[in-house]
């Protein structure tokens, strides 16, 4: 305990010295998020210096081993760092699917050279990754996917199409599920990694109801992938995919705290000047749920660190967290009134309330729908028959 | 501090769980005393066993002979009480009254704590006036009289009041109805002259009283804490009682949910186990989520209270409200998913529904605490 308190004091001091004031503000738009990658640009010097300070300390991925670019923090210290960062509202120095999704999968399934190479790149923000999972005919029924890699000796030739590939048009590399055995549904998928500049890879952004295009269609037309660019074993990519989905669900759930699950009643009053009594009541009920969910997120992370959490618990977190975030934005729209309807006005920074509200509707679809989450809870946690 | 039980707490949870499942079981306690028309609504023998186990003094300081533990540990016992619907004066005596007595004079502590520790005495608290919980507005008056006080007023929803050896009464010694200051707590013995109680059996078979204080004369030694300065102790009592009731409610929710999930795995209709139907699976999974979250916020609030953190007040209300929602859902879904048999007295699921309803009301319901969350948050 004393050690942790020393670490807390040191961390507080380090944050004070290294986290610029501009980086202690809530994330307002996409430009405030630093994603790294070959084409990355910093929005300003503060973003750059905050990222560089964290990278030098291993704090872009604090819990990863030092050999792979992390700080090697244990569970207790990682929690202290998280608490201290959230205390001053410090922004994440680096956001990426490499950190949230591919990284944990590589740590579990990767071989040493892969860990050193790929994890190091992720920690240093050099490569931006995207995820090739869903296909036009394979949404909730993901395992029915058809993208095929033909065995050509020392490489595969991949053909097919992925969809809902987040930021594929800005990503450098993709981690991708590719069928390598058509006769075997679950044990016929391989988890491959390849460069998005490989000939035959093309992307096309999808315009969403929010007017934004964070997702793409991604096409593979005779894409050559060397045989050593797989994670885990040949035809056992589904195991990696399932493990990684757990992390994706955890990420979408907002279990780590932050905006998605914070109480909003007081902010809505400040913003609107007054609240209609019934809206105020709804906000109070929301805040009860949000604050309770915040405690659940903390408990979940504490338990996961020591192996006490049920392995299927991320599905529950994802279900509740995303439903909560949708409700949150519905209430924010109501509190904002007609102002929040504006689509491209300066006052709303280009329709931030309405576009944000629409964006949340995907939360309970992406990474497994709420309905699929409830199926998984029924089957794996409650052990209900035939589920 | 991580949000799960440490080794000592895990041991306590194991022993409380085993003890309550054996000794506090529904058939042995709740149904036995209900069907025997017991005027107390609980068994004194079990309360003595609580004493032998050390549960009675769980929150009493070690200096006073108790275990000197906190809200997390008291909550462990409460949750097991909830799961087994064990009728017990634990919440009013060992959580609420014990919190008040911790602030009492040597004389008050010496008079009442030994009986609490052994389980020979039972205690109650008289806070509410009227059918809803409004501790901000206390009308019961205590006027100076000789070297003591004279209490006049009416109290309601005094759980175990009729069985209690002493009742902690919150009264106004100065100021106006809504003032924060001017509240004093008194230890009122059951046989005090001018004290009368009208006992009523509630929907969950517990017994509460409507209490009339008609010029009850008490000497100065009956005061718990400072004259006019009782609001702080009252708030501590309320926090302890509310999180205790929330922990019990979390236990009720778990008990009802476990029973219902079990039933889904046994009952067949249309040639299938009803648990195979997705319409029920999704509702069960949603219920599980709500109950898990309720349990998480309970332990969060308990830890904050034990650490005397400023945010404890807010989280206690979040916990009481959230548990109210989750436990309410658990018992309603429980009865519905059991179908016709859920409506019968023979089946236990209805007993969970009744207990939940009484707990919802005790020390503030979902609406009271959601309102408090808004006020504490500043809107």
Quick recap:
With 387 residues, chain A is an alpha+beta fold. Helices cover 43% and strands 14% of the residues of chain A.
Structure description:
The complex is a heterodimer of chains A (387) and B (379). Chain A is of the alpha+beta class. Chain A has helices at residues 2-18, 45-57, 75-87, 97-109, 112-123, 237-253, 265-272, 277-305, 313-336, 352-360, 370-381; strands at 129-132, 148-151, 155-166, 173-179, 189-195, 201-206, 215-226, 230-231. A 4-stranded mixed beta sheet of chain A has the order 1-4-5-8. In chain A, a hairpin with an 8-residue loop joins β6 (201-206) and β7. Chain A is globular. Chain B is of the alpha+beta class and 379 residues long. Chain B folds into 3 domains: 7-122, Acyl-CoA dehydrogenase/oxidase, N-terminal domain (Butyryl-Coa Dehydrogenase, subunit A, domain 1), CATH 1.10.540.10; 125-228, Butyryl-CoA Dehydrogenase, subunit A, domain 2; 232-377, Butyryl-CoA Dehydrogenase, subunit A, domain 3 (Up-down Bundle), CATH 1.20.140.10. In chain B, the strands form 3 sheets. Chain B has a 4-stranded mixed beta sheet with strand order 1-4-5-8, with helices on one face. A 4-stranded antiparallel beta sheet of chain B has the order 2-3-7-6, with no helix packed on it. A two-stranded antiparallel sheet of chain B has the order 9-10. In chain B, α7 packs antiparallel against α8 (278-306), α7 packs parallel to α9 and α7 (231-264) packs antiparallel against α10 (349-361). The longest helix of chain B has 34 residues, at 231-264. Chain B starts with 6 loop residues before the first helix and ends with a helix. In chain B, 57% of the residues are buried. The interface between A and B is large, with 44 and 41 residues.
SSE layout and pairing:
The complex is a heterodimer of chains A (387) and B (379).
Chain A: H1 2-18, H2 45-57, H3 75-87, H4 97-109, H5 112-123, E1 129-132, E2 148-151, E3 155-166, E4 173-179, E5 189-195, E6 201-206, E7 215-226, E8 230-231, H6 237-253, H7 265-272, H8 277-305, H9 313-336, H10 352-360, H11 370-381
Parallel strand pairs in A: 1-4
Antiparallel strand pairs in A: 2-3, 3-7, 4-5, 5-8, 6-7
Helix pairs in contact in A: 1-3, 4-5, 4-6, 6-9, 8-9, 9-10, 9-11
Chain B: H1 7-23, H2 27-35, H3 44-53, H4 71-84, H5 90-101, H6 106-118, E1 123-126, E2 141-145, E3 148-159, E4 166-172, E5 183-189, E6 195-201, E7 207-219, E8 223-224, H7 231-264, E9 268-269, E10 272-273, H8 278-306, H9 312-338, H10 349-361, H11 366-377
Parallel strand pairs in B: 1-4
Antiparallel strand pairs in B: 2-3, 3-7, 4-5, 5-8, 6-7, 9-10
